[in-house]
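Sorry, any thoughts here?
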Amino acid sequence: MRTSALGLALVASVALAEEPSTRLELQVPFEVTLVGLTWGVRPELLIRPGEAGTVSRVRVAVGVFAGKDQVFLPLSVGYRAVFRQGRLVQPAVGAGLELQHRLVSDLAAVRQFGVYVEGGVGFSVTPRLSFGLMVSLDLMLVGGPGIGLGPRLFAGWRF
């Protein structure tokens, strides 16, 4: 009895550690921008371009945020590296380009273009479901210089 329970626990832990053979992950993060104080969601599609087990992901994200005096619409394209796949804790870092649209009350629409860097950690609950925290730092270069900081909590599903 004891041996079969130990064997069952070992099989279950190996099954949870295996990464599913998926190329896509959808993450739906809730984010707060600390500069401009807006909040909302920024759904992300992560595409694995290589073989299973590679850390590389192409990231495409679009967000809708609202604040007291503005609506903020960012569009991002970038790269994310996800480490320790198949493990409970999965650190991640990334960088990319971002186009931002801001609709500020009593002003004309503002469009800015720049770069972002991000870092954080995900927690794999099952081979397909994860939760985590990412923090992004934006540096706008065109359309008005600016800097932004936004923590985001996410839920992700691999399919």
